[in-house]
Amino acid sequence: MWAAAEASEVTAPGYGLHRVALSPVSEGPQNVVAIYDVVGVGNALVDVISHADDGFIAAYELVKGSMTLVDTDRALFLYRALGTAVEMSGGSAANTMTGVASLGGRAAYIGKVSNDELGQVFGHDLRAVGVQFRPGEPDGVTPTGRCIIVVTPDAERTMNTYLGVSSLLCPTDIDDATVAAGKVLYMEGYLFDRPEAKEAFRRAAAVAHAHGRQVSLTLSDSFCVDRHRDDFRSLVTDEVDILFGNEDELISLYQVATFDEAVTCVQRDCHLAVITVGAKGCYIVTRAEVLTAPAEPVEQVLDTTGAGDLFAAGFLFGYTRDYPLLHCAKLGSIAAAEVISHVGPRPLVELRTLLP
Q1: pLDDT cut 70: percent of the chain above it
Q2: Can you give the pTM of this predicted structure?
């Protein structure tokens, strides 16, 4: 038991316009001002959220509690079957950046949308809450992606995701200046479903490390881990400074029988791992120790969508301010508790008003 060599403009809310000179990635850390606390890279999606019972899950052959990638026809079929739904911009890393901004932090987001109605809505939603949005080059054919989320009475969420143009993210969509100006780069595991997106991921990580920044990864989903286990293991060992995940994802990553074994493995491979265990809280794993932190009490859990995303937001908000790790976990728990107390993956109140 474990006791781009040219100058580029970067803006941030309230911080004016800055011109940042970027050197080639290979040259090592440069004197670039940290304008952002966290810069997120991920799939830019619009969430379509509806409540249904387990009968709906069975009738439409959904895999309860998981994320399943679907094509255009399947996405449209499920959308029509849902009936009443709430639509809002989403995507895992975008939710996290929204949480950072709600806590009072400075966040930016890189993701690919099309020049269509949903793409415009996505960008507007992020900017409205103070997140700087850096869209990649639009695609003239492929529409903006969307995630159809079915929430059952037990608050479990089942996601069917049409990635659309978000999956076409490529290295040229990465804004080097934005990545270099963030204290921590935060990337979602969902990106790894396409080779060009993997290259974009690695490009962003290289830029971050070349400028002395830290790189964080969220494992996203145990099914995602199953698809990309070798890549994730390599990333955790060689490129990731901070790993986020839950108990099932970590066990899947290392293909071990128990959570204790998985923690031993990640303690060997990663400088810092933060692993949530539902209502029991989280484990903070460093090379030197394993800490435990309780979850924030919630009167009623209505929707677990976005819980991990907002936990990461709270933790990174504290981390970029050099707070003790247990206090970072406390902030993560506060943010997660707020989002699971209502429907939807983003906070309904300013999270900064909930801080101790």
Answers
A1: 91
A2: 0.84
